Amino acid sequence: MKIRQLFLKAFGPFTDATLDFSGPARIHLIYGPNEAGKSSALRALGDLRYGIHARSTDDFIHAFKDMLLAGTFEDAAGQVHALARRKGTKNTLMLADPATGLPIANSTVPPDVQLALTGGVQREQFETMYGLNSAHLREGGQQLIRGEGELGAALFEASTGSAGIKALQGLLEAEAKRYFLARGRNALLNQAADELDDARKRYKQAITKPDQWKALKRAHDEAVQQVQTQREQLARHRRRQNEVTELRAVAPLIRELDRLEAEWATVEAEVQLPHDARERRLGAQQQQAQARRDLADSLAREAQCQQALSGLVVEPALLREGAAVERLQANLAQVRRDRDRLARLRATVEEGAQGLWGQMRRLLPESLHTLSIDGGVAHMPSQADQTAWRAAASESLDQARDLGGARQQLETARRKLTQLNEQWRAQSLEVPDAVLQATLSERLQRAQALGDVSQRIATLEQAHRTAQRQLERDLEALGLSTVAQLTTVRGLSLVDIDAHERAHAELRQELAALMARRESTEGDLRVQTERHHKLSAVGEVVSADTLRQARAQRDTLWLSVRAVLEEGAEAAPDRATLSQRYAQASTEADRQADLLREGAKRAAEMAECTQRMTDMQQTLNGLLVAEEGLQSSLADLESRWQVRLSEQGLPLMGTGAAREWLTLRQSALTQRDRVSELGDELAQCRAQEREAAVELAAAVQALLPSAHAAHHAGQGLAAGISQAQQLERDLVARQAAALQHTQALQTLQREIAEAEHAERALLSAAQPVRERLQAACTRLHLPADATPEVINARLAEWQDWGEAHRRHAEQALQLKQGQASEQAVVDEAQALAALLGEALGTHLDAWVDGVVDRLQASREAHRQQAELTRQGQDEARRCARIQSDLDAAITELAALVQQAGVSTEDGLVDAEARSEHRRAMADRLQHQRSQLAGASEKDLNALRQQLLDQDSLALDVERQTLNDEVQRLEGLEQAAISAEHLAASNLAAIDTSDEAARAREEMESALARYRSGVRPWAQLKLAEALLSEVLRRHREKAQGPVVALAGRYFEMMTAGRFVRLVVDADGDKPMLLAQPAQGQPVGIAGLSEGTADQLYLALRLAALEVQRTPDRLMPLVLDDVLMTADDQRAACMLQALEAFSLGGQVLLFSHHQHLTDIARRVLGADVLQVHSL
């Protein structure tokens, strides 16, 4: 059932939330940002239908016992059912109130409603078939690519929502191969079979005779003795070989050592200096020169410091009184800054006194003009009086303003009342008839309930044209010209195609088996041929047949010889030749007899190999004949197939093309029915539009004047709805105008009464205020009838006079303080002059500036004196340090001269060269001795003694001889070892002490492992066969309609880049291909990831549409399936979903805001509804 409303009463983050899906929209886009509850809403859709999980994670706000979901559903008959689901273990589904979603207590849901709620499918099937998220979509696309478009797996996965069918087939096949693999050796059953055969052979060969064992034992002992003898001889020769090699290696080393020792005797008496003597000499010389230069520079700088100190002048008295001088300077600077301000302040004080006197004469009567400024302060009103008089004046002004406003409001209300009456008489509006207005509203609502009929008609016309064009394309692909031919030309049935495919597959399978058997036989023949060549390569092979032939030839020649010698036959001309031939035949017969005795085993193997090669060649000839027969049968089968196609009037094509032809025919028939249905629906919509337009026009005509109604008649439903809406708005406006006139009239009458009452109240409240103002006029020396404005002005004058008087007093005080500061600076300067023992100058400023300059000069001289003293001390210490470095360098050079045994520094260079030569000779001598010790561990004198009578040539000759002998002995040793191994293997082969028991035990073990592996292998092969059969049956059932529908959806999603899907049935398994607008079909493995995702979604939509039945109208729930698509691809996929939604409901969840804009741009308002969480 379709869901119309989802009540999230208490679930996850939601409390009393509602999602309304009841509108005309077929696609509902539910948008919510992260953490908005999108996942909880998704789980709620499944929990409402199947029950809330026992361990639900949506209890983080509401407790388990409080969790509640509800919803309204619409079944196939259009009946609405309201259901609620609580958290619990039984009886959790109840009937609910369709308006609020609250459960109805003690209610029971009928079984047919429960069945319709779930559609008869389990929860897992519902979530996989009718639910799809972005991860499942991407995984489905990847499965299509990995499966390379295998049709059966693709259709099964798309129809059931399951994933990994191809991987499951591969896993079953791999597991089965782990148990058994044809022509393999490492599988469990293969290993067990090989071990069983080997154990059986060893069991049969585990019996022999005692005399054979004794002979083989004796042969083995002799072989062991021969190996020991050869190894001893080889060890003696190798020891001598190593000695000669060692002498040959050390001979040149000893000669070089003698030469170096002789050269060492010539330099051994030289003085050996340290290895860093040269670096020490050069460093000491460089240090000595640098110290002398640094010493001269330091002495010069020290003299400069002494000279600079002698020219500095410092006054100690000024330095002692520096703080007093700085304080005097700061105070004088402040006095200088205040001199101009004090002059201005003096003028301001005098001018302020004159201004206060004049202002006071204007405020007081003439009888008080003799008062001083301070006496006038006594006549100034107090702050309390001023505040009270200002309040009274302000209150009087407010009363006058309110009285004027009340009178103006009264006049305005009277004028508005007159205008309102005149306007109402001029409009002369009539109230419409209520019955006619209700009829118009009812018919207008019925017309609006039809929706945008014009848009629906346009959509149906577009869909009809699209379906008609698709039908024409299908007919063109089928090679038909009219729709009627769809029913007359039926083509081959699927049964015929399947029978031909099975026969073809069986012949191909038999042919493959024959070819595999032939290849195996050819491989075995090559092995036997190689074995025959190896046996022949060892030497001549003699068998019993060749020996009999040689003896028969010898006996024949003997009879000829006897006939000549004993029976007196006449001597033949070739008598000597006959005797020679007999001798050769006799020798040959004896030779073959000897060879047969020596190589009886090889001869038997040779005969066996020859017989096997003969049998295999015969088998190959038979296989080739059978293979030619199967090829002929395949050709006959193909010929019969082409004849059947010709009889049906079809072009020559393969079974895959024939199956696709049938699929296209079924698609064309479906499209023909869709064209017919769209035509009927279009005619119905047009009839509804005409009927609604006529009824609406009649209702409008009853309310409008006849001429105006005739003007708008016959303009269509949209124009009629617009006219009716305008008329309805006019009627409502008339009623509103009448009501508004009545309300305005009452309001104005009420305002006039209120204004008259306010005027009377204001006049009675103004009298006390006026009396207070008359008292203020007396105190302020104003006329008794002075206005509030005049009183406020006089109060402001007195306030200004008081503020001016306050400023005048403050300025006079500041003037006295400045004069006192200037006198204090003069006293401070006289005290400083006394301390310095100087007379104060006539000009104070000049004397202070001079003292300050002298202080700064003395301080600078004192600072320079300290700095120069410090620099002189530093230079003295530096001279001592440089002198120490100079003495150290001289001492180092003297030590080197004494160590080298020379008289002066100039002789050190030659002494260093001689010392270096002596060190190099010692190193070379030590290196040579090390080389000699590494080449031989023997004593040097022993080596010299051994080389006394030897030269290099003799050693080389002896070494070559020993090498040849060692190689010969190694060959003999290897031959002896091979003989010993052969004798040991022969002896071990016939040693039957426990071989039979071990072989029997291994036979039983191999047989047990073989039995344990057969059952799981058979189960795996059976599962693989069952899965393949299910895929085949599902492919045959769903291939036609699903592939055709998926091709149309795929065309929409790719914006026409791919026009349809085709099936390639020429291979072992039918494969799905995508046909682009131009070019050859493309395999699924060649598609991009995004296009593969679109193909998987197209297959899912097609499979769901084919499976759609009235009792299973479940909504398709998509979760962020457009997350990885760009804007253009998302728009195309939304158009495909719009086509799918014609027969079902689509709920699309997303947390991407931009998808809502894309959806609104692509889909119409009657198709899309956006919900926000």
List keywords for this structure.
single chain; 1173 residues; alpha/beta; Helix Hairpins; five-stranded antiparallel beta sheet; five-stranded parallel beta sheet; 33 helices
| Largest sheet: spatial strand order | 2-1-4-5-6
Low-confidence regions: 148-152
DSSP strand content = 5-15%
Structural class: alpha/beta
CATH structural fold name of one domain = Helix Hairpins
User: In this structure, how is the largest beta sheet organized?
Assistant: 5 strands, antiparallel
Arithmetic mean pLDDT: 78
Give the overall form.
flat
Number of helices: 33
CATH class wording of one domain: Mainly Alpha
How much helical structure, as a percent, in the residues? over 70%
Report how far the terminal alpha carbons are from each other: 23 Å
If you compute it from the alpha carbons, what radius of gyration comes out, rounded to the nearest whole angstrom?
Answer: 64 Å
Q: How many strand elements?
A: 13
CATH architecture assignment name of one domain: Orthogonal Bundle
Helix and strand arrangement:
Blueprint: E1 2-11, E2 14-20, E3 27-31, H1 38-50, E4 68-74, E5 80-86, E6 93-95, H2 111-118, H3 123-129, E7 131-133, H4 134-146, H5 151-160, H6 165-179, H7 188-204, H8 210-267, H9 277-310, H10 316-320, H11 322-363, H12 373-376, H13 383-427, H14 434-449, H15 453-478, H16 485-488, H17 494-538, H18 544-565, H19 575-598, H20 600-647, H21 655-703, H22 706-712, H23 717-765, H24 767-779, H25 788-836, H26 844-900, H27 908-935, H28 940-946, H29 952-990, H30 995-1053, E8 1058-1064, E9 1071-1076, E10 1082-1083, H31 1089-1107, E11 1116-1119, H32 1127-1140, E12 1146-1150, H33 1153-1162, E13 1168-1172
Helix pairs in contact: 4-31, 5-30, 5-31, 6-30, 7-30, 8-27, 8-29, 9-26, 11-25, 11-26, 13-23, 13-24, 13-25, 14-21, 14-23, 15-21, 17-20, 17-21, 18-19, 21-22, 21-23, 21-30, 30-31, 30-32, 31-32, 32-33
